[in-house]
Design a protein that fits this description.
heterotrimer; A alpha/beta (472); B mainly alpha (322); C mainly alpha (295); B: 322 residues; mainly alpha; MetI-like fold; C: 295 residues
Chain lengths: 472, 322, 295
């Protein structure tokens, strides 16, 4: 009895194991196309491949642009690869791995952070195409502020056409302001006014509240305070050239005289007394409990904290509107104003646009995509909601912010129009190293005594020197 | 007797086993021997070939790469020992190696201490359902990804609005700037790492404890050993093989810590939580200095090997084989 | 010397109180339970907070005192996750990658572990040391050559690029070797005397007994690779090839504009499959790591 029972059990176990094995083999065979990526449409064909930073959520908007493009250029097959990444650094890493894998995209959506890295190593200049199609492009440039375009100039050549951008403006919580008995700050408020408003807010709400919240990153961290104080952590210079572009598209622009062949950041500048001054100001805010010590890394706490009325003011750009809307903020719950004035009221901005890769198989087709993507038609399809600021002035309008706020949405584009010296995120080709050198010293600089600040700036200067010496 | 993971009585068993096996195949001496010659390799082939291709070749390649300057985009150029020279002089690299060693010492000590204490408490007399509950609870963090753990821990350790500081306020401790000061960040990285990883050591210790025969304890209690003294004199020596395995694994893991500091602090403030592996990642994938990254990697690997070798050597003196 | 004698004296003084041990033990057990409970609060508290925060609208996410129990669950963040991510595809990819790695590791590790434990061949010790030594090399060190290798085989940006390199496992081989060493060695002898080939001995005698060990290898592999971030970050490019942890990162939004509730909802969702495997595998894991076949 026991024996046969055991045998039975043995047999059933064998059957079970066999079934399991067959199941595994079957599943593997069935999923072979998935395992080898053969089921990804457009794989291995020679369509124009375009890499963007984004998620599946953008698919709809993207697909509409592709369809619209197909109507104009039925001969060009386009495939857009959305690459999910935590930030631009991660995204550039991905692009470089694609280059290393021998499957580089033909066109890449690149932000200011990577503009010079791409211009130096990977991208193809647009100069010849712009000269050729100057007539077609007049309308675009007339609608886009030259400061944005200049951010994509490198050594006299243009590498990208700005599609979207954001400046570091100051968001404030309306109710926090009211509680403190404050009015909306004036357009030309100063860093002293700013500090006073923070103090008033602190007085009105001593608990469970932060008058000024900021995070430690390249955009919207310390840099806006350096720009407002007419300095930066890198010595900024401009290269010559670029007249061909400015003369043909911006000859009448009042800021024409400011334009150049592109920014250059060749030397560290952390030992500048004004840099010390700006840092010391922020240190004062931290010390007096008016501002937080800035955290490094993602700023995910920000939306939740701001939407739950725990933050008085924070620097952010037009990209933030949709996030606040989704977090449940009504259009009157918050508003936006220019960054405070110090020695200047120069703002910091970041922008992004498509770049054609040197390795692109069909550069003419790639250019057609760039041209189309910068058209009003395409940009309307891409930016249905204000999760970033469109580069075209005409699109930053009532309609975009309807039902979402902020009331003073005009501040966004006025930042460029009223302050034509407003400058891009400092991002030389060695951007990653430079960013690390800056960020790692910020927290220490603003959260100790004067000695610690001096030490932090000294080590920032040293780290920046090493970073800039790198070959990028 | 011996356990799966702690089976440190390896030598004895091996000796006995092979002796017997040699004697046990009297009939087919020659064919058996011939078969025996290639048979082990058939068993080993998948692992050895796979490892050769995907681990050893890359290791050799990265050692070679350490002598080149290469940014993926342009062709590599030979630079001799330049990468090593630069790496050794780079203050960030040096600090990050020191950080890593500090991290390993503190985190591994905490991890093993906590795991051992809890394992002993769980293995002593307890209602069965409670034992199951505690075991599952302590193992639970292991099933989470380090990245997502770090994401929610960031919120909990927020200076103004985090739950941790809120709890501390009840004991009269003013808001601790966890993520924005060097000491605070280091503490958070260590706490979060230990929180997530002690469960593995805990599980190993549970296994080790279960393999200690109850008679040993009975004998000890007849000798009058009770409570902690019993554990000090009986448990610890008998558990030493497990402790060796647990500590070797904990150290190897901790030396490669990346996700927690990367998500929690990005290595800051300053370089206070930058680890060796982070520096490798940054120099390779953010600065495109693949040669330098390889050089740092080679140095790190040598250090890990030296530490592990030292551990095994020390273990000869301190590990008690049953 | 003096300590031992005082200790002994102390023990002797305690000895006459033998009648009381029951009570005493109860007290010490109660104390232990309290300590263990405190520890479990610290372990589970953060997870509960994550769960309850993911079930609240973002504006309430920073409530203090925190609420650990989601009394009025709001599932809108979960809707948001499903809207923003093709979560089914992410789960399918993660399941394929993790499942095949786990199965592959179980089999290769069982074979290699058996060879290292039970078969004699020249260079066994040295080879085993090399296998163990590979554990000490951080993935970040070898990722670039692995990447080039993958490109060479023509598997760039495929799931197989994640799977194949992860199948040979040093740790799994180590575990299986220990496991086979723990099995009584006379098992094989009987079979050998019956004239069974070494392969048959393995297949019909050792392999079935090694199932719990293989289960451990499989579960640990599943757990590790389900949560793996670094290799997929580097080795996959198309979003169609992303695994769950990579997908979750994108919930954080551009410049961190994503809402905390949505991020945490993603964290909770990604936890579920691992939790299921853990619940089914926990017993095997515990028994395997605990007792071998010593019962």
């Amino acid at each position: 009895m026991a024996g046969s029972n055991g045998k039975l059990r043995e047999i059933s176990r064998r059957t079970a194991l066999g079934a399991l094995g067959a199941g595994i083999v079957g599943a593997t065979v069935a999923s072979w196309p998935r395992l080898t990526g053969m089921d990804i449409p457009g794989r291995g064909d020679n369509s124009l491949s375009i890499a963007i930073l984004g998620t599946a959520a953008d698919a709809a908007a993207r697909q509409r642009v592709i369809d619209a493009f197909a109507k104009v250029h039925p001969e060009v097959k386009v495939k857009v690869q959305a690459i999910q990444a935590a930030d631009w650094k991660d995204f550039f890493t991905k692009i470089l791995t694609m280059v290393a894998a021998g499957t580089p995209p033909d066109v890449v959506y690149v932000a200011t952070e990577g503009a010079q890295l791409f211009a130096e190593k990977l991208a193809h200049p647009l100069d010849e195409y712009l000269r050729r199609d100057a007539a077609d492009m007049k309308e675009y440039f007339a609608d886009v502020h030259p400061s944005l375009v200049e951010a994509f100039m490198y050594k006299g050549s243009l590498f990208q056409l700005p599609i979207d951008w954001n400046a570091a403006n100051m968001y404030y919580n309306t109710s926090a302001l009211q509680q403190a008995g404050l009015e909306r700050p004036a357009d030309n408020w100063t860093q002293v006014d700013f500090r006073n408003s923070l103090a008033a807010m602190r007085k009105a709400r001593p608990q469970d509240f932060t008058p000024y919240y900021w995070t430690n990153r390249l955009f919207g961290g310390v840099v806006p305070w350096l720009y407002a104080n007419d300095t930066s952590f890198l010595k900024e210079s401009k290269s010559t050239g670029g007249e061909w572009l400015w003369d043909s598209f911006y000859a009448q622009d009042p800021s024409r005289g400011l334009r150049s062949g592109g920014y250059q950041w060749l030397e560290p500048n952390a030992d500048d007394p004004r840099v010390y001054e700006s840092f010391d100001y922020l240190r004062g805010l931290v010390k007096d409990g008016l501002g937080v010590r800035p955290e490094e890394g993602g700023g995910n706490s920000l939306v939740g904290l701001f939407a739950s009325n725990r933050i008085g003011m924070t620097p952010a750009g037009g990209y933030w509107v949709e996030g606040l809307h989704e977090a449940g903020m009504k259009e009157d719950d918050f508003d936006v104003q220019f960054f405070p004035r110090w020695r200047t009221q120069r703002h910091q901005f970041g922008t992004a646009g498509y770049a054609i890769m040197k390795t692109a198989k069909d550069k003419d087709a790639a250019w057609e995509w760039l041209k189309f993507a910068s058209s009003l038609e395409a940009m309307r399809l891409v930016f249905p909601t204000p999760n970033t600021t469109p580069a075209r002035r005409s699109m930053v309008n009532e309609q975009l912010y309807a039902g979402r706020g902020p009331k003073h949405w005009k501040v966004f584009y006025d930042t460029l129009d009223k302050f034509p010296t407003t400058g891009p995120i400092p991002a030389p080709p060695q951007q990653a190293a430079v960013e690390t050198a800056l960020m790692k010293n910020v927290s220490l600089a603003v959260s100790g005594d004067e000695n610690q600040l001096k030490q932090a700036l000294a080590s920032m200067q040293r780290d920046l020197e090493i970073a800039l010496r790198r070959q990028a | 007797m011996s356990t799966a993971t702690t089976g440190m009585s390896t030598k004895r068993r091996n000796g006995a086993g092979s002796k017997r096996r040699n004697g046990a195949a009297p009939g087919s001496e020659t064919t058996g021997r011939q078969r025996q010659r290639w048979l082990p390799w058939a068993f080993l082939a998948p692992t050895i070939l796979g490892m050769g291709l995907f681990t050893l070749v890359p290791i050799v390649a990265s050692v070679v790469l350490a002598f080149f300057r290469w940014d993926i985009i342009s062709a590599p150029s030979f630079v001799g020992f330049d990468n090593f020279a630069e790496v050794v002089q780079d203050p960030t690299v040096r600090v990050s190696f020191l950080n890593t060693i500090m991290f390993v010492v503190v985190a591994v000590a905490l991890q093993l201490g906590l795991a051992l204490a809890l394992a002993i408490m769980v293995q002593e007399k307890l209602p069965a359902w409670l034992r199951v509950f505690f075991r599952s609870a302590f193992f639970f963090p292991l099933i989470l990804s380090a990245a997502s753990v770090s994401i929610f821990m960031r919120y909990l350790f927020n200076e103004q609005f985090g739950v941790v500081n809120w709890l501390l306020s009840f004991v009269g401790i003013p808001a601790v700037p966890w993520l924005t000061t060097p000491a605070g960040s280091a503490a958070v990285v260590i706490l979060v790492y230990v929180w997530q990883n002690f469960g593995f050591s805990f599980l190993l210790f549970i296994g080790g404890l279960a393999s200690i025969p109850t008679e040993t304890y009975e004998a000890a209690s007849i000798d009058g050993a009770t409570g902690w003294r019993k554990h000090l004199h009986v448990t610890l020596p008998l558990l030493s093989p497990t402790t060796l395995v647990a500590s070797v694994m904990a150290i190897i893991n901790a030396l490669q810590v990346f996700d927690q500091p990367y998500v929690l602090t990005r290595g800051g403030p300053g370089d206070s939580t930058r680890t060796a592996v982070m520096v490798i990642f940054e120099s390779a994938f953010q600065r495109l200095e693949f040669g330098q990254a390889s050089a740092i990697g080679v140095i790190l690997t040598l250090i890990i090997m030296a530490i592990t070798a030292a551990q095994f050597r020390l273990s000869k003196r301190f590990v008690f084989y049953q | 010397m003096t300590t031992t004698s005082t200790q002994r004296a102390a023990v002797e003084r305690l000895a006459p109180q033998r009648p009381a041990p029951r009570k005493k033990r109860n007290w010490s057990m109660a104390g232990r339970i309290v300590l263990l409970l405190i520890a479990s609060v610290f372990i589970l508290g953060p997870v509960l907070w994550t769960l309850s925060t993911s079930l609240r609208p973002p504006a309430e996410s920073f409530q203090l005192p925190p609420s650990f129990l989601p009394l009025n669950p709001d599932f809108s963040s979960y809707d948001q996750v499903f809207k923003q991510l093709n979560i089914m595809l992410l789960v399918l990819n993660s399941a394929l990658v993790t499942g095949l790695i786990a199965v592959g590791q179980m089999f290769t590790a069982a074979l290699a572990g058996y060879a290292f434990a039970n078969l004699k061949f020249r260079g066994r010790g040295a080879l085993f040391s090399i296998v163990l030594a590979t554990m000490m090399v951080p993935a970040q060190v070898t990722i670039v050559p692995v990447f080039m290798l993958i490109r060479g085989i023509g598997l760039s940006d495929t799931l197989l690029a994640l799977i194949l390199p992860a199948i040979p496992t040093a740790f799994g081989t180590f575990l299986m070797r220990q496991y086979f060493l723990g099995l009584p060695s006379d098992l094989g002898e009987a079979a050998a005397i019956d004239g069974a080939s070494p392969w048959r001995t393995f297949r019909s005698v050792y392999a079935p007994l090694a199932m719990p060990g293989m289960a451990i290898v499989g579960i640990l592999a599943f757990n590790y690779h389900w949560n793996e971030f670094f290799r997929p970050l580097i080795l996959t490019i198309s979003e169609q090839n992303f695994t769950l942890p990579l997908g979750l990162v994108s919930l954080q939004g551009n410049l961190g504009t994503g809402s905390i509730s949505v991020v945490l909802a993603g964290v909770i969702l990604s936890m579920i499959p691992a939790l299921v495997v853990f619940m089914f595998g926990q017993r095997a894991l515990r028994d395997g790591l605990t007792a071998g076949t010593g019962k």
